[in-house]
Input
Amino acid sequence: MMTKPFATTLDPATSLANHTGSWRTLRPVNVFKIPPCNKQCPAGENIQQWLYYAAEGDYERAWRILTENNPFPACMGRVCYHTCETKCNRGFLDESVGINSVERFLGDYALDHKLSFQKPTRETGKKVLVIGAGPAGLSAAYHLRRFGHTVHIVEQGEEPGGMMRYGIPVYRLPRSILDAEIDRIKDMGVTIECGRKVDDIIAEKQNGKYDAVVLGVGAGLSANVNIPQGDANHILTALDVLKEIETKGDIQIARRVAVYGGGNTAVDVARSLRRIGAEPIIVYRRNRDKMPASEEEMDDAIKEGIQVKWLSTIAGATKDSLKIEKMKLDETGYPQPTGEFEELPADAVILAAGQNCDLEPVKKIEGIKFEKDSVNVDSSSLMTDVPGIFAAGDMIKGDRTVTAAIGMGKHAARGVNAYLKGAKYERAAKHDEAKFEDMHPWYYSDAPKTVRPMLELARRTSTFDEVQHGLTEENAVFEAQRCLSCGNCMECDNCYGVCPDSAINKLGPGKGYEFNYDYCKGCGVCAQECPCGHIKMVPEKI
Amino acid sequence: MLEEIKFYQTGSNTVGNRLLNPSMRTIQASGDRPNTLISGHRACQGCGEALGARYAIDAAMRATGGQLIVCNATGCLEVFSTPYPESAWRLPWIHSLFGNTAAVGSGIAAAAKVRAQRHGDQTVPRVIAQGGDGGTTDIGFGPLSGMFERNDDVLYICYDNQAYMNTGVQRSSATPPSARTATTMPIGAEPGADWGKGKNVPLIAMAHGIPYVATASVADLRDLERKVEKAMSFHGARYIQVLVPCPLGWGVKSQLTVTCARLACETGFYPIFEAEYGRVTGVRKIRQQQPVLNFLKVQRRFAHLTGKKADPKVLARVQAMCDENIKSFGLLGDDDPQPAPTAVQALERAERI
Output
């Protein structure tokens, strides 16, 4: 051994004896914040987490995480109005992440690779009846099946899918995709009985010895608008038109058609009619700013050559023309008649002024309560005032979109599960939202949003081919990698690297980091330099 | 190297990232990094110098395969890392006087060469001499200039925190104008450090025509690691000056160490460039340009420039200084730097290598 002269030679790394953690007044801790996309998603998808795995190229794991909340990624990747993207923090930086297109890529990947849902590991022996095989009913059935309950769906239509089949045009959702995703739910053991309408729900429940019922009745009735007709001008409802085009592939209708309404259904109908050679014109009472239809869909419609008559109502109809009254918006944004009229040549009118649910059988249930036209439910478990009967989808209060219905179906299933166990379902409290101010935007570089290749405009107006194409694998990974990972660790090694005291341990891929409180002096550099706001400094208890 | 990284989530700006190929991550990102300056040292909270020293020496360790000797001038770094009986270093390290580190480094380099020759060793350990700005630009300047002039095979790293922090924040010749220190109090007509004094040692080093001169900061780890590795690829005298904010001396919140260094670079206050044989060969471009006020206002040493009683003319003068840096080093845009005039010695030395 080397003999060392006193006080002039020190052994390496002997400073480890000095636990500088005792200096600390603030302590770094990891916080898990809910990204704005997750918070916004009506289906409650854990978007940030599945993008995390998609960015790594682990598509199956991403898909499994996605389908924990939503069993229809391929469908939703096509028809969801992706409000998540409007909340995306990346929007402050360049453009929001194309969440919807990555979802579609994952959905298509799962279909191509024939991924199937896991069957429940144990059967509970409880039987649940679901009425309606629309998005709410199917989602509820899927989640109930995951809990291990036996699920039977009764659907009044000829085929399952509800509004996804009879309301959404083929150019937005090819039926082969819908069928494949429904089949996957059937493969879990869910049985679907089509073509039968349940008139007496209580009797059905008792006869089938069901432990609980989930009602998932969609808004399948078009609202009527009274238009004074002179001679017989052809007046149809939007849902009838969409259903006929869906089942027969065509519809016998005049060339010049007025579509009355400003919602997504009006746009769907107009774009469908354009594809069978008609010349639809949308007549809407208010202006574009006030239009409830999705902006993207409307842009596409205008590109396809669909005309819109803003600030107009149909005051009357004759054989080949409409009497249009011009409107004007008052201070509250509500349209007021001006008394000015004009003629609009049109051979038919299609009403797309809202839809209602067929609630007649529901009204027969004793004790069930209504609020306006919606069934009254517990806001957490979605149980109606009758124990054991739950409701989801269009028939209860909330957004009438497929995504919202899927989310409600999930919560109804959880409500049923708790009810069958004799408990009450309470939704878990949400984490704080990860705001853009919590992030460190310096670390993110600019990356443009990948534009989905569009079909040629000319082709789009004559066929029912799908309008939006999916992303290639390369683009999907690119898009997923644009995620800022708001409020959750993405393993960028920044905290590990910037610690002046080497007081953060790296635990290896997928395991993250841990603070070494023996040496952490609490300077806060890690919290300051964390790109995604995952570290917070909290006062030390002294 | 940076151009190769086609990466969207966090650009090339984070320390590592799970999505990057491990070979493209920084040395600091690896789980088994050398950690030459280990925990338990007594630097203040958020010390930029401790961070900069670990970044630089770890990179040099990787570049030399662990064959590295460090000699350290007196100063904060020496004091906080080796209080008796503890040392936070994990490599051969020697403490010199305040002023002679460059000379000690030269001696060790010569001794290592002779020793290797005598023993027939294939590898000769490389030498780094390091110190703070006081030990480099003031007290150790003579030995430093001598080391450059003799072109001894030593990399000199100056951790520039712009004052004598260890003894209580006294002005050095690297202290920027108007900055408050214990010896340049914010009083009188021109408060803070004088204008028109001090020295720019990187430019002086370039004038010696040595193989490699660079400035760097703790805010751009990739840039710093690349420069240290590049410096180790040269033989002869090399000089790297790393901007290391001092939370205590600058009056910056401890968590803002890295952010403050970043602001110094992004405002043009501290130009980041590199030069070979006296010629500027590359500059780190400003990514998001900001007014110098943003850099000044996070520091109490400049509080008299940003407060209510501040003289706007002084602020304008600091901004003009930054603008001049941006212009003369070409810190904006994507173009290559303009070649600067080359010292004659540099041309002679380049031929010899």
